[in-house]
C-alpha cells in the first residue's frame, strides 16, 4: 500500500483560495483589523476561577480547611483578576470609542474596570445565594444546597449571567456576551447579558429558556423550561438596519411564575404575582395577580402557585 502521506493534496491552491476568500471575497475580519481577540479558552478558565472564589468549598480545591480557605480565595482571585484584566483590555478595543485610545490608557481603563468588578463579587455572591435558596424552596425534588450548586443548569446559567451582567454594566459587552454564551452552550439556557434580573430567581429544568437583552425581571420570579421572553418586532432605521438597544422585551414583576413553553413577546408587563400557564402565547400585558392559561384569563389575587396541578406544572 502506498503511504497516504505521499499523496499530493494541492495545498498551494487551497491556501491561495482560502486567502482570496479571507482577504477579498468573504471578509470577516474586523474593519479596523484587530488581531488581539478575547480568548474563549481564557474566559472559560476565568469563570471557573470566579466560581471557586465565590463558592470555594464547592468549586475550589478539594483539600481546603478553615485555615487555608482565605489564602486560597486570595491567591486565586489575584491570579484570575490579572487574566480578566487582559481580556477586558482586548474586548475594549472593539468599542468604537476606543478605536484610537493609546495602549497605556486602555490598560489603565481595563484595570479600573476589573478592580470595580472585583469589588462587586460579594454582592454578586449574595444574589446567587438568593437564587440557590429560591431553587431549594421552589423544587420539591431538591435535596440540599450542594446538589443545586453542582447539578442544576438554571443555577449555572444565572451564575454566568450575574457575572456577565456586571461586566456589561461596566462597559465590556463583548466579554459579557462570551460569558453568557459559554453557559448557553452548556445548559441550553440563553440569557442576554443586558437583561436585568432581580434576586431569588429560579429556572427549573431550564432547557430552551430565552431571555432577551432588554428584559426586566423582578424578585422571586420562577420560570420553567422553554419559556421565551422575546421581542415582538424589530424597528429599523431609514437605511433598513435594525435599531440597537430599543426596549423590546417583557417586564416581569415580582413573584411571577411562568410555566413551561410559554412565549411572551414585546415590551409588555406581567404584573406582580401573575401566573402564566404552560404553552401560553402572550403579546399583551397581564394584570397583577392574574392567572393566564390557554384561552383563559382569570383576574384576582394569585393563589396556588405551588400547586402541582397549576397550568403547565411539570410533575416529578
TrEMBL record:
Keyword set includes Transferase: yes
One GO biological-process annotation of the entry reads: amino acid biosynthetic process
First-level EC class = transferase
Write out the GO MF terms: serine O-acetyltransferase activity
Keyword vocabulary terms for this entry: Acyltransferase, Amino-acid biosynthesis, Transferase
Q: Which reaction does it catalyse?
A: L-serine + acetyl-CoA = O-acetyl-L-serine + CoA
Region Disordered, residue ranges: 292-316
Q: Which family does it belong to?
A: Belongs to the transferase hexapeptide repeat family.
Protein's name according to its UniProt entry: serine O-acetyltransferase
The organism named in the record is Trinickia soli
Amino acid at each position: 500500500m502506498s503511504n497516504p502521506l505521499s499523496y499530493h493534496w494541492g495545498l498551494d491552491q487551497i491556501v491561495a483560495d482560502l486567502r482570496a476568500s479571507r482577504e477579498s471575497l468573504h471578509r470577516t475580519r474586523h474593519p479596523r483589523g484587530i488581531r488581539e481577540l478575547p480568548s474563549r479558552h481564557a474566559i472559560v478558565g476565568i469563570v471557573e476561577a470566579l466560581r471557586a472564589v465565590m463558592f470555594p468549598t464547592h468549586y475550589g480545591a478539594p483539600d481546603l480547611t478553615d485555615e487555608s480557605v482565605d489564602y486560597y480565595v486570595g491567591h486565586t482571585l489575584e491570579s484570575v483578576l490579572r487574566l480578566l484584566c487582559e481580556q477586558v483590555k482586548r474586548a475594549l478595543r472593539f468599542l468604537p470609542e476606543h478605536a484610537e485610545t493609546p495602549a497605556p490608557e486602555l490598560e489603565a481603563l481595563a484595570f479600573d474596570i476589573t478592580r470595580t468588578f472585583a469589588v462587586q463579587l460579594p454582592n454578586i455572591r449574595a444574589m446567587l445565594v438568593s437564587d440557590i435558596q429560591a431553587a431549594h424552596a421552589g423544587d420539591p425534588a431538591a435535596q440540599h444546597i450542594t446538589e443545586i450548586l453542582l447539578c442544576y443548569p438554571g443555577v449555572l446559567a444565572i451564575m454566568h449571567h450575574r457575572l456577565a451582567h456586571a461586566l456589561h454594566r461596566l462597559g465590556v459587552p463583548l466579554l459579557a456576551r462570551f460569558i453568557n454564551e459559554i453557559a448557553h452552550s452548556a445548559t441550553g439556557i440563553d440569557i442576554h447579558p443586558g437583561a436585568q434580573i432581580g434576586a431569588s430567581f429560579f429556572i427549573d429544568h431550564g432547557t430552551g429558556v430565552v431571555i432577551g437583552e432588554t428584559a426586566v425581571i423582578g424578585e422571586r420570579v420562577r420560570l420553567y423550561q422553554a419559556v421565551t421572553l422575546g421581542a415582538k418586532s424589530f424597528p429599523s432605521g431609514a437605511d433598513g438596519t435594525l435599531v440597537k438597544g430599543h426596549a423590546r422585551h417583557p417586564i416581569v414583576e415580582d413573584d411571577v411564575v411562568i410555566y413551561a413553553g410559554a412565549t411572551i413577546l414585546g415590551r409588555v408587563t406581567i404584573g406582580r404575582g401573575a401566573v402564566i400557564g404552560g404553552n401560553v402565547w402572550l403579546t399583551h400585558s397581564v394584570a397583577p395577580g392574574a392567572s393566564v392559561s390557554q384561552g383563559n384569563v382569570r383576574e384576582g389575587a394569585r393563589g396556588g402557585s405551588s400547586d402541582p396541578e397549576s397550568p403547565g406544572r411539570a410533575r416529578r
